[in-house]
Amino acid sequence: MKLYTSEALLKSGCPICLKPLNSITSLVAENAREPMAGDFTICRHCTSFLIFNSDLGIRLLEPEEVAAMPAHSRAALVRAREFYQSEPEPEDVD
Length: 94
Ligand SMILES: [Zn+2]
Hints:
The protein has helices at residues 7-12, 63-68, 71-86; strands at 40-42, 49-52, 58-60. The protein is an alpha+beta fold. The protein has a three-stranded antiparallel sheet. The protein is globular and about 30 Å long. The mean pLDDT is 84.
């Protein structure tokens, strides 16, 4: 599993739960690549649906954006949320 990061992500963390986020990985290993503006993601801690900004920081996806996203993307985020909510939250690492 390849991990990516960005300066903006390291600086901002999750805009909802404010937990630090230090890395990003693709939900689908064969699609792994560096994140781009407009990519969808999910916070591992609070499972908020998020989107990358042009500086590769993240913001909350608005409900209308979730409704308008491709069905396969929404399904992938919902599956990830269900998985993360069933798993214990990782301990914070310094
Ligand atoms: Zn969060």
